[in-house]
Amino acid sequence: MSETAVTFAKENGKRFVEELKSFLRIPSISTDPERAADVRRAAEFVADELRRIGMENVRLLETSTSETVYAPSSGPAQVVAARNGHPLVYADHMHAVPVNGKPATTVLLYGHYDVQPAEPMEEWKSPPFEPSERDGNLYARGAVDDKGQMWMHVKALESLLATGGGRLPVNIRVIVEGEEEVGGEGIAAFVREHPEQLRADVALVSDSEMFAPDLPTLCVGLRGMIYTEIEARGARSDLHSGMYGGAAPNPFVALAQIIAQLKDATGRILIPHFYDRLCAPSDAELAAWKALPFDEEVYRETEVGSTVLTGEPGFSVLERTWARPTLDVHGIAGGFTGAGAKTVIPARALAKVSMRLVPKMTTAESFALYKDYVEAICPAGITLDVRLIHSGDPVVVSTDNPYVRAATSAMYKVFGKETVFVRGGGSIPIVGDFIRELGIPTLLMGFGLPDDNLHAPNEKFHLANFHRGIESIVLFLGSAAEV
Ligand code: BES
Ligand code: MN
Ligand code: MN
Fold this sequence. Notes:
Layout: H1 2-11, H2 13-24, H3 36-52, E1 56-61, E2 64-69, E3 78-84, E4 88-93, E5 106-112, E6 132-134, E7 137-139, H4 147-163, E8 171-177, H5 185-193, E9 202-205, E10 217-222, E11 224-233, E12 239-240, H6 241-244, H7 251-260, H8 283-290, H9 296-304, H10 317-322, E13 326-333, E14 344-345, E15 348-357, H11 363-376, E16 383-392, E17 395-396, H12 402-415, E18 420-424, H13 429-438, E19 442-444, E20 460-462, H14 463-480
Parallel strand pairs: 5-8, 5-9, 9-19, 10-18
Antiparallel strand pairs: 1-4, 2-3, 4-8, 6-7, 7-20, 10-17, 11-15, 11-16, 12-14, 13-15
Helix pairs in contact: 1-4, 1-14, 2-4, 4-14, 5-13, 12-14
Bound molecules: ligand BES and manganese (II) ion (MN) (2 copies).
One manganese (II) ion binds next to loops.
C-alpha cells in the first residue's frame, strides 16, 4: 500500500508544488491585524484541500485570544479582552482496520499555516508572496516554515487515500493552526478544553530542520520561551530636553540601564535563580552532538555571517543554542526616530525582550524571576509595566519508543542513511501541550535546511526535501500501523 502511494507521490510531485505555490500566494501573516482576512483564506484553502482528498469532518474551529492595545501617547496600555483569533483547521479519517486484534494506531498531524512578516522587503530577490523556483529551491515566505512542510502532510494523505481506495493505514486526525508564530494561544486552549477530540497515540510535526543536507533528522528537544514587553514611563508627558534635561527621568535611558543588567558580557543571564532548575543534557547526548558533522567556523561564516560568535565560554555552539537559556532584545520603540533631530525627553518607552528556556525550567517561574529582578533594578523616577506576551514550555522527547523506530526506518528507505537525533533552539509552543495534556509522544520530523532562511528574507524550501518528506511521511504512516 505504501509503495504504490510513494509512486503516486513521485508521479504527482509537480502538481503538488504548483498547489503549494497557490497556498504560498496567500499572505497569512498572523501578527498583522490587517491580514486577518488573508489568514482566514489560508485556513479555508487547507480545509478545501483536505475535503477534496477525502478527509472527513473537515471544519474550521474558531479561537479567541486576549489583546493588549497601546495608547498612542503617554497613557497606560490597556488589555482589551477577547478578540477573534485565527481559526484552527480540523479533519479526521478514523477507519483504519485493527491489526492483529489490536485497535488501529491513531496519528495526530500538526502544522501551522500562518507565517512571519516578510520585512525587510527590499532584501528579497523575488517577492515574498510570489513563489519563485530557482536552482531546485522554492522561494517564498512560509515555503518551509511551515506551509511547505504542512503541505507535505496533506500530500502524503492524498497519496495514501488515492492509491488505497479511500483507506488509510492508520487513523488520522489533522489539526492545523494559524497562530503558531504569535504564541499559539488558541490551539493551547483547544487542547486543554477538548483533549478527547485530539486523542491519538502519537503526534507528527514537520516544522523543524534536518541537521545537514541528505541527513535524515529527528528533533528530540525544543527550547521553550517567554516573550515579554517592558514599558517604562517617566514624566507625565513628553518634555523639552533643554528645559528639563537634568531634572526629568528618561525612560529610554532607564530601559538601556535595565537591559544592560540582564546579561553579562559572556551572555550569562544575571537574573537571580534563573538557572536553578536547569537540567543539563546527558553525557551520552553531549557525546552524540560532538559526533555530528558541524564546523563552528563554517557556521559563523555561512549561516551567521558575523565576525565572531558570542555566548557562554565553555559551551559549544550546539550546547549554547540547544541546551542553554538565552536572552535577546527584539526592539525598542517610542520617542523620536524620524528624520533629523527633535530634542525631547519622551514620556514612555517600550522594549521587547524574550528568553529561551531549556528543560526543566518553567515559564511561570522564569517570568516571575525576571519581572521581580527588572522591577528591583528599575532606576528612580521610572514606573514599569512588565508584561508576558506569550510563552511555551521547553520539551524533550524520548527516543526510546516504537514510533521513533518507525520514523527512522521510513527515512532510511528514502535517504539511505541512519537518522541523527538533534535538538532545536527554536520553540513550537503546542508540542509541550501535546505531551502534557494529551500524554502522547511527538515526533519532530522536519525537512528544512539550515540555510532555508526561516523568518528572514529569501526563505526557501529545497524541493528535493519537499518530495523526500512526502515519501518519508507516507512510509512512516505505513509502518506506524504495525506499532
Ligand atoms: N518552526 C519554528 C520553530 C523551529 C525552527 C523549531 C527550527 C525547530 C527548528 C516555529 O515556527 C517558530 O518560529 N517558533 C517561534 C515561536 C513562537 C512562540 C513565536 C520561535 O521559535 O521563535
Ligand atoms: Mn514553524
Ligand atoms: Mn516560525
